[in-house]
Every structure is written in C-alpha cells, then in structure tokens.
Amino acid sequence: MGNIDIKNAPVGVFDSGVGGLTVAREIMRQMPNERIVYFGDTARVPYGSKSKATIIRYSRQIINFLKTKEVKAIVVACNTASAYALEELRGELDIPIIGVVKPGAEVAANITKNGKIGVIGTVGTIESKLYNKCIREHNESAEVFGTPCPLFVPLVEEGWINDTVTMEVAKRYLAPLQDTGIDTLILGCTHYPLLRNLIGEIMGNDVTLVNPAYETAVKLSKMLEESGIKCDAPVKARAPHEFFVSDAAERFMSFANSILPYDVDTTKVVSIEEY
C-alpha cells in the first residue's frame, strides 16, 4: 500500500458484542473522515467470564479476519480482550493496535483529586488488575477499588437501559463503592457508557465518571496522526462503515441503529472460527 492508500484504509474495531459500538460512535464523532470495519463476536459474548487463553484465541481469530479487510490500525474495543490479549497480540502485528484500558486509566489517574478511583467491569477485567497497574503508572499513590458487574452486559444487550430492574441491579453492584469515598469511577466495560445516566444518578455529583470509549477515540486520533496515516479527506458518499458479527445480525443492527449517528443498513455474519 502506498501512503495515500494507507490513509484511506479503514480502522478495525472489535468487541465481544455490541458494547464496542460505544467506541465506534466516538470515533465517528471525533474522526468523521475515518472508515470503520466493526466486528462484534455476538456468538461468543460475554468475554468477561472466559479464560485468558480463550480470549487470546478469540482475539487472534478476529484480528486475522480484520486483516483480510486491509485495516490500517486496530482498536480492541473490549476491556476484557484489552486486559488479557492486547500485549500478547501487539508483537504479532505490523500495524498499530490500541485497547480501551490505558486511555481510561490515564485520564482517571490525572483527574482524581483524592486519589481514590473506582473501576467497574466484567469479572475478567477486574481480576486482571490491569486498570490498577495502568492507573498506578500515572499516579502511584492512587487507591483503586474494583467491582465486577457481570449482569450489566446482558441487560444492555437486552436493551433494558432505563429499566427498573437494571436500576435495582446497579444499586446493588455500586453499593460497596459508595462507602469507599471514590471521586472518580471508570466505566470499565464498553457496554457501560450506555448506562451512564443511571450510574451517575446512583453515584451522585461528587463522582466523576470516566468513559474509556471517548478517551480511546482521542488516543486513536493522536496515534493515526503520529503514524502519518490519518485520513484527511471526507469519507465518500457510499456507505463508509462495514459491520460484521458472528451471529444474530438483525438484533445487532437494530441495536447499532439505536446508538450510532449513522444508519447501519447491512450487517454480515462471519464464521469467525475459520480464521
């Protein structure tokens, strides 16, 4: 690929399901010139309860698929895959790859006033302690309180975003964090920004919520610029973004259309195990 071609190549974004669409949404908002190839592993969601070896295998298959789409960079829009597979896979790639953990951790470490930071995420993300490590790289005296919230993912995928059931579940999950005195809370799963209002209501105005999806898009923009591969011309009128899933395309599409600033009219199913 010549440099011009590379600039026009798409960015690959993947997640265990629909959660990574919050990252895709931020990339679309902040970098309207970029094209996205999105893969949601809807057949094998959730990732949060699976082993590290399995997450690495799934991520490798997805990256192999995205490479067939000639992407110029990859965003691991899944906290669990960022925590378990990113460093392992970075060495196997000749294109830039970023995850969602470091950008969120860095911002939280810099904005906390009292040094007490909460992280909510899947069991896998919390157990990996990667957020703790990344936060301490920027703020070594920070105290980090992690709480897994495994039911948030299925509730969001079900579309129960403003439901009383979700509110009850959230109150129960967040109760232990309310006694810690945290002033900053990282929404450490890409599904969670969709519950932002509800989480904010429970935690109150004194707790700043950090959305790693937003911070990841900021970081991606810098990374593409530094590598000289940021697209500087507007996306052509044709449907610029492509969406792929491993199962349940219709359901994915209706969810995507409810949160993206862009109409998704086709989503293709891929046999991801073949990659």
Give the secondary structure arrangement, pairings included.
Layout: H1 3-8, E1 11-15, H2 21-30, E2 36-40, H3 52-68, E3 73-76, H4 79-84, H5 86-90, E4 97-99, H6 101-111, E5 116-121, H7 123-128, H8 130-138, E6 143-148, H9 152-157, H10 164-178, E7 184-187, H11 196-203, E8 208-210, H12 212-226, E9 242-245, H13 249-259, E10 268-269
Parallel strand pairs: 1-2, 1-3, 2-9, 3-4, 5-6, 5-7, 7-8, 9-10
Helix pairs in contact: 2-12, 6-8, 6-12, 10-11
Give an overview of the whole structure.
- With 275 residues, the protein is α/β, with parallel strands linked by helices.
- The chain has two domains: 3-99 and 214-274, Rossmann fold (3-Layer(aba) Sandwich); 101-212, Rossmann fold (3-Layer(aba) Sandwich), CATH 3.40.50.1860.
- It has 13 helices and ten strands.
- Strands 4-3-1-2-9-10 form a six-stranded parallel β-sheet, sandwiched between helices. A four-stranded parallel β-sheet has the order 6-5-7-8, sandwiched between helices.
- The protein starts with a helix and ends in a 6-residue tail after the last strand.
- The model has no long low-confidence stretch (mean pLDDT 93).
List its traits.
275 residues; Rossmann fold; alpha/beta; globular; 45% helix; 13 helices; 10 strands; 2 domains; six-stranded parallel beta sheet; four-stranded parallel beta sheet
Q: Assign the CATH topology of the largest domain.
A: Rossmann fold
- What's the CATH first level of the largest domain? Alpha Beta
Order of helices and strands: HEHEHEHHEHEHHEHHEHEHEHE
Whole-number radius of gyration?
A: 18 Å
How much is the average pLDDT? 93
- For the record, give the distance between the C-alpha atoms at the N and C termini, rounded to a whole number: 23 Å
Strands, total number: 10
Helix content: 40-55%
For the largest beta-sheet, the strand count, sense and barrel status come to:
6 strands, parallel
Q: How many separate structural domains?
A: 2
Task: Name the shape in a single word.
Answer: globular
Strand content: 15-25%
